[in-house]
Amino acid sequence: MSNDKDSGAVTISRRGLMLVLSSPSGAGKSTISRALLKRDSHITMSVSMTTRPMRPGETDGEDYIFVDQDTFDGMVAGGEFLEHATVFDNSYGTPKAPVEKVLGQGRDVLFDVDWQGTQELASNAPKDLVSVFILPPSIEELERRLHTRAQDSDEVVKKRMAKATSEMSHWSDYDYIIVNEDVDESVARVETILAAERLKRIRQPGMVDFVRAMGVSQ
Amino acid sequence: MSNDKDSGAVTISRRGLMLVLSSPSGAGKSTISRALLKRDSHITMSVSMTTRPMRPGETDGEDYIFVDQDTFDGMVAGGEFLEHATVFDNSYGTPKAPVEKVLGQGRDVLFDVDWQGTQELASNAPKDLVSVFILPPSIEELERRLHTRAQDSDEVVKKRMAKATSEMSHWSDYDYIIVNEDVDESVARVETILAAERLKRIRQPGMVDFVRAMGVSQ
């Protein structure tokens, strides 16, 4: 807690939160995430660790933290991941330490994980996690977006639709639900959720000192 | 769930929430509540039931619902109150039925209860309750506001300050904490909390039908 003498504004130190945005492909998650990261300087993207080889154009520590399998397995054994998974022989995970550091600085972290990763985060950090599921306004609109995006064959789009409805079946595991009719409106809704969550008592640890300074006994 | 063909807007039926704003006297709760009720047509004030005699200028069913002690005691015995208390031989309580009706219509209810009433509401309706504690920006500002308001003697203000710090000791029972430096900013923060809470999955029961209509299995 500090009291800025010039403006008279009270500043309460806060603990950051972990934000998960999930959606089926085509429902707008990527667009919303990019807009959020651009507009809100208090939230940063989590950088995952992976054992897969670095690809041209990728930067170590930015796109991913690239490690060998032994290092990864040792961290799994040491409980050093908030969540991890193996996909096509490659391991991916979110190391705890850097996330904890950012949260402790009162800044928020955005995660790009699927429903299984979200469940693992919820189980390892239930108080810090805020999960938002983004739904398309209708199945027709989702199909239209999947068509427009890639101009793929009906067969490919059909497979994607099946995958999307399967992904959507996990909507009820999430704290908040947004139906994405308009991207700007959906970004504003995510910002509203963030603004409200930041006012939660548990995210304002400095409030303890602030109240104590007013002579209030607990 | 309905789909407005004219605007294309998706409407998801929702369940209302119960909002409690608490603060020590002088921290601005009444001003914030009035502004909120005026600006947000989706929230209404809960009307309490009481056994105390009606006063001149009061309207039955508007200021309070006035009942005799036998009626009140019968309702207590029947578990028909969300919270109730006896103060100076008079009983006060919030009947369940009208609140449940409003929540079922997807509208929110604002309560004017103390920390004990809040605890009782939290215990009887944990999923529906959203509790916000409003703190003054400093103890000096609280004292200044208590002085300005009534032009009372130092003795009276001292007693009020003791009562206020006692009330403030319950701040840590609440979900959200707002430091009221500027009334307009604090009203905006309560509105942000309401907007976010309305996006919670549990407050959007119509989402079940909406998702089912997209062919998503649960």
Kindly list the characteristics that best describe this protein:
40% helix, 20% strand, 218 residues, 11 strands, homodimer, Rossmann fold
Strand content of chain A: 15-25%
Order of helices and strands of chain A: EEEHEEEHEEHEHEHHEHH
CATH class of the domain at 17-46 and 106-197 in chain A: Alpha Beta
Instruction: Count all strands of chain A and give the number.
Output: 11
Task: Explain how this protein is built.
Two copies of one chain form a homodimer. By secondary structure, the first copy, chain A, is an alpha/beta fold. The first copy, chain A, has a domain at 17-46 and 106-197: Rossmann fold (3-Layer(aba) Sandwich). Chain A has helices at 29-39, 69-77, 96-104, 115-124, 139-150, 154-168, 183-197, 207-213; strands spanning 2-3, 10-11, 18-22, 43-45, 49-50, 65-66, 81-87, 90-95, 108-111, 129-135, 176-179. A five-stranded parallel β-sheet of chain A has the order 4-9-3-10-11, sandwiched between helices. In chain A, strands 6-5-8-7 form a four-stranded mixed β-sheet. In chain A, β7 (81-87) and β8 form a beta hairpin. In chain A, α5 (139-150) crosses α6 (154-168). Chain A is globular and about 70 Å long.
